[in-house]
Amino acid sequence: MDTIKSKYLEQISGDFRLLAEIVLKEISILRQILSAADHSSAYEEIATNEILIDGLDVKMREEVINAIFLFNPKAMDLRKIIAYHDMTIYLERIGDLILNISRHLRQCKLEGESFDELGKKIAQMLEFVEKMVRNAVFSFTCEDNSMAYLTISTDDKVDALFREITAALYMNFHGKVLSSQDLQNILSINSISYNIERIGDNATNIAEAAIYLMEGKDIRHGNKK
Predict the structure, then answer these.
(1) Has residue 135 been placed in a domain?
(2) CB 3.0-4.6 Å disulfide test: which of 61, 64, 116, 148 passes with 139?
(3) Please, what is the angle between helix 2-35 and helix 75-106, to 10°?
(4) Helix 113-141 with 75-106: angle, nearest 10 deg
């Protein structure tokens, strides 16, 4: 029975790592879209990967439920299984946010000095959240609390960039006559930066859950290292 349980938990762990890899690939594709001229195939890849993410989300939820009912896990095993469940939810949400970002990027034309500068800030936000997701997943799978705390501290940089973009949109375009494409760009950039900021929040959730698993300490409402 213990051998079967061990193999089942290994399956959950493997599916989680695959899910995380796909999500990280999605963020990398978004960064490529910002830097490349021809990226039509990239949007198709994001849509395809989103189907894989949704499928893994459903599969892992079923695996977690089955593990609880079949093996009646105790203490640490149960906490880790529940952590897999929670982190799967966070990764699936990140997948949804990435899909939202790709749809808004399709409507953007980041041309001209103002929009080009905003595009650079968006690229920087994506770079930060990619590192956050990678570090958060690593902190959980390798039980490294230092990477979890690094993830949480990086979220402040993402939040700062989000505020900078919001302020720049107002300062750069308030009171000006805007074309329909300018308006579309402004709305899209606002939505893109918001969705990236939410990716950072979900990466932080993963890091906080990892810390709770390792230290038994809930830091969601303060008490951060």
Answers:
(1) yes
(2) 148
(3) 20
(4) 160
Q: What is the CATH number of the domain that holds 38?
A: 1.20.58.220
Rg (Cα) of the chain, in Å, rounded? Answer: 19
46 in Cβ contact with 29 (< 8 Å): yes
- Residue 92's alpha-carbon distances to 118, 135, 211, 219, in angstroms, are 27, 17, 20, 22
Give me the helices (H) in the chain, please: 2-35, 40-71, 75-106, 113-141, 145-173, 180-215
**Main-chain dihedrals φ then ψ at residue 99, nearest 5 degrees:** -60, -40
| CA–CA dist 205, 88 (Å, integer) | 11
| Residue indicated by tokens 């990466």 | 203
| Residue 27: Cβ within 10 Å count | 24
224 lies in a domain? no
pLDDT tens digit sequence for 172-214: 888 888 888 888 889 999 999 999 999 999 999 999 999 988 8
Strands (E), the chain: none
The answer to whether the beta carbons of residues 124 and 193 sit under 8 Å apart is no
Structural domain total, the chain: 1
H/E element, 219 = none
Tens digits of per-residue pLDDT, 108-118? 877 766 778 89
Residue 111 domain flag: yes
